[in-house]
C-alpha cells in the first residue's frame, strides 16, 4: 500500500529510477579505483553503493514492495549499458576518449555484467527481507537486517563475477580480500550513517505528508 498520492507516486518512482542509475554508474567507476584502508584492500565503490539500499528501503516503506520491484526492473538494462559506456571511457580513473568505445573491453564488460547480476540479486533480497519486517514496531530492524543480507549477497556476487580470474592481476589476486573489506565498509557506513539517515528521512516525509493531509482536510 502506497503512502503517497498517485501523482507524487509517479514522480517519486521517476526520481528513484534516475537515482539508482546514477549510483550504479558511479559505483562501477569507483570500484575500479582500489584504496588501502587500515592496511586492507578495498575500493571507493564501497562508500557510494549503500545509497542504493537507503533509497530501496524508503521506496518499500512509502510505496510498497510492488513499486520497489518496478524500480529495479526499469533500472537494470539502462544501468548496464550506461555503466559499460562510462567505465570504458574512464577506465581506472583516466579518460580514454570516445574511440575507446569502438574496442571491445572484456574487463569493463565483466564489471558491468557483475553489477547487473549483483544489483538484481541484492536488491530483490533487500526488498523481500525489508517487506517482511517493516511492520515491526521497532523501525530500525527492517533497514538494518535487509541491509546486512542484501549487501552480503550483492558484494560477493559482484566481486566473484567481476574479478575471479580477471585480466587485472591485482584484482584477480585480491578480490576475496577486497570483497570482504568492501562488505565491512558498506556495513559500517550503512549502520552508522544510512540507517539513522533512513529514520530521519522517513520521519520528515511522514510529517510532511501528515501536514499536507491536514491542510487538504
What are the defining features of this structure?
single chain, 217 residues, mainly alpha, two-stranded antiparallel sheet, 4% strand, cell inner membrane, membrane, Probable queuosine precursor transporter, YhhQ
Describe the structure.
This protein has 217 residues and is mainly alpha-helical. The protein has one domain (6-214). The chain is 77% helix and 4% strand. The chain has 7 helices and 2 strands, in the order H-E-E-H-H-H-H-H-H. The protein has helices spanning 6-30, 45-48, 50-63, 65-89, 106-133, 141-163, 169-216, and strands at 34-37, 40-43. A two-stranded antiparallel ribbon has the order 1-2. Helix 3 packs parallel to helix 5 (106-133). The chain is globular. The mean pLDDT is 83.
Order of helices and strands: HEEHHHHHH
Overall mean pLDDT: 83
Q: What gross morphology would you assign?
A: globular
The chain-level structural class is mainly alpha
How many beta-strand segments? 2
Number of domains: 1
Largest sheet: 2 strands, antiparallel
**Cross-sheet strand order for the largest sheet:** 1-2
Which regions contain 5 or more consecutive residues with pLDDT less than 50?
Answer: none
Radius of gyration: 18 Å
Q: Please report which band the strand proportion falls in: under 5%, 5-15%, 15-25%, 25-35%, 35-45% or over 45%.
A: under 5%
Multimeric state: single chain
Q: Please give the alpha-carbon distance between the first and last residues.
A: 21 Å
Helicity range: over 70%
Number of contiguous helices: 7
